[in-house]
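This section describes the prediction task in plain terms. A model, or a person checking by hand, is given the sequence of a single protein chain and must write out its three-dimensional structure as a string of tokens. No templates, partner chains or ligands are provided. The sample shown here is typical of the held-out split.
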Amino acid sequence: MLLTGCTTTVSGTATPLAGAPPTTSEPPAPTTPAEPPVDVTPAPEPSVGTLLEAHRIASVTSLVQATFPARTDTCFPSGPWSDSAALDAAYFGSGTAGPVLDRWGFVTAWGQCNSDPADGAGTLTMVAELSDPESARRAAAELAADQAGGYEAAEIPGIDGEVLLQEGGGEDVVQAFVPVGRMLAYAYHSTAPGQGLDEAGRLMADQVGLLEGFTPTPQDQVPSLPTDPDGLQQVTLDPPGEFTEFSGPYDLEGYLRLAIDPARERDLLRANGFRGFYSKQSAEGDLSYAVALYAFPSSAETNAVYTAFAELEEAEFGGTRFTLPSVPDAPCFWFESGDGYYQRCYVGYGSHLASVDVLGLGASADVAAMDRLLPAQRDLIDG
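The expected answer:
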């Protein structure tokens, strides 16, 4: 979806038969009183506005690498989720988590996923926006109660929420559901035996700290969130195909949830007066595309970041340089990706820096798509 001004998808457990008489003359045990009803604020319909709110939530979703620097590989699921059923399928697969979220006023969510390339151990973080603080608390309790597979209730000092621990098979697996205001923070973390609760505690402490400074958009204002707050949409090239939900504006911290090396890129962009970022990502046939536009105060800062990004791609990220016939001076790199290749090229002018990615190529030397796209992006920013 292109973000414009227009809006464009267990086994059960047996329970006693209701009303069965007691089997002894002893009085039945007292039951726990039902919790009082909650006046759930209606959520806005999924739209451009809910995607924009998800991009805001990205800024306060814990970066896995900040707590576990070795977990550098990005993985699925990640990104924005305005559909509770899709979020359920990606994170829980139960078919019951989506209705729980909807019952408590689900608005939208953002998730991160990272794993350790050495052993594959992974961590998921996800933050969902719900109706109100009581709804977030009840959703946390219901989602935790819905988990199966040998989890036992546990506690993490200083974390006020639902924590589950599964031990065995040579690892600890922790799930945590922590309400912070009307936001619900979730984490799934696998690690070495005996370390799960301590590590999950550090992760959730970081997550809670981020959310304590966040103000969610009132539900009735979500549809009118600004689609282009930094005025970058019109100078960001439209790549071929259907736009994905990653497309749209991000602030600095939100952008870092898309970055390869968040810590290093945060320092670089802050030092050069970062003023805004806009992303357009799409897919068409076997190819995927990503266009990223950064704004800075002047050409001096643009050039500094242009040079630094080129050095990172080659020296740190393992890119192989190639020359693009249409823009021979552009820093261009190709990378292996699964069974194929992807290319990234940079172009800058004035206060704007852009990168263009083409993914899913069958050969590293196939520059046909990039040879069309990079000159078109250059022309947009050089006016």
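For orientation: The radius of gyration is 23 Å.
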